[in-house]
Amino acid sequence: MSLQNIRLEVMLTLEKSIDTFVEKFLITPEKIWQPTDFLPNSQSDKFIEEIKEIREISKELDDDFWTVLVGDTITEEALPTYESWLLDVEGISQTSNNGGDNGWAKWIRAWTSEENRHGDVLNKYIYLSGRVNMREVEITTQHLIADGMDIGTGQDPYKNFVYTSFQELATYISHNNVAKIARKNGHTLLAKMSKIIAGDEMRHHLAYTEFVKQIFKYDPSEMMLAFQYMMKHKIVMPAFHLRHSSDEKGTLFGQFSTVAQRAGVYTGFDYVDIIKKLNAVWDIDKITGLNDEAEKAREYLLKLPERMHRITERIVVPDTKYPFKWINPLH
Fold it and tell me: Per the count of CB atoms within 10 A, which of 9, 83, 184, 283 is most buried?
């Protein structure tokens, strides 16, 4: 049987348990939080007062913080790209052979519907803050969706699930650190909002790591090679193509990454820590039944965190002030 057919067989096997995954890792719209739960109530007499309070305390947070928050918001808003990309993965389809719903499509739609709330609540909040040029944010968001993305996974489900396992943990770290900074600066509402978004990302991370864990049981060598491939080529962030209106795509991403590191929201050390966590959660050192190539891949993966940590220690983060069009400077 070809490698492609084996992957399809594994995906079909996992699909039989998709309802269990949905029930375990996702929450129905009626029970989960909604953006309105964390925003000023427009039907309340105190609505204007609450907005004024947000605008006032928003002055206490610096441009680096708002740049990172805007970048996180735009990343969350580009959800249509992520849904269309996942629906194109081998073994995933919007329809099934019997004409019913494809289980994987059910998962992706339910997952993206949860993710959709993140962009909604953050977009409204940064709009109310008065610190952000929303038209420039909206232009960047539209470009990011229109430009699409290439995360180096192709249609391979194994590589895609490594990517989502990594990326969901990265967004957990980012939103969780935003929550800490906001709380430290008395930005209670934003702290609560970011903390609960981080909680969603952690649930999603646990789901995708479970998919990979199951694949290791059925196809250990190919799963190990897919993990190694993704780590060798490095994980490209979803917002890799960030740009302003007149720029080439990807122009802003390096600057944004520098600001995120400088603000302590997402650093090179976080990247290394995620690799360690994935090695641990998938028991990379204990997987059995590997062929010779996969054994070498395992050895590479186990040594990678220490090697990358040494490289990261030598990185100097510049204190350059970048002219992001998204940010309204304080006068």
Answer: 83
Q: Chain-wide mean pLDDT for the chain? A: 93
Instruction: State the Cα–Cα distance between residues 24 and 216, nearest whole angstrom.
Output: 20
Closest of 281, 279, 113, 273 to residue 206, by C-alpha = 281
Instruction: Kindly indicate the confidence band of residue 245, based on its pLDDT and cuts at 50, 70 and 90.
Output: confident
Active site residues: 33, 76, 115, 118, 168, 171, 200-201, 204
Phi-psi region of 234 (alpha: psi -120 to 50; beta: other; left: phi over 0): left
Single-letter amino acid code for the residue at 245: S
Tokens 């989960």 belong to 32
Q: What's the Cα-to-Cα distance from 163 to each of 18, 74, 204, 284, rounded to whole Å?
A: 19, 19, 12, 16
One-letter amino acid for residue 34 of the chain: Q
How does DSSP classify residue 2? -
Question: CA separation (Å) from 37 to 41, 127, 192?
Answer: 8, 17, 11
Beta-carbon contacts of residue 14 (< 8 Å; ≥ 6 apart): 211, 214, 215
Cα(7)–Cα(247) distance, rounded to whole angstroms? 40
Question: Which domains does the chain possess?
Answer: 3-28+57-313 (1.10.620.20)
| Phi, psi dihedral angles at 327 (to 5 degrees) | -95, 130
pLDDT per position as a tens digit, 100-144: 667 899 999 999 999 999 999 999 999 999 999 999 999 999 999
Q: Which residues contact 222 (CB under 8 A, 6 or more apart)?
A: 3, 6, 7, 158, 294
pLDDT in tens, 58-70: 998 999 999 999 9
Cα–Cα distance measured from residue 128 to residue 48, given in angstroms and rounded to the nearest whole number: 10
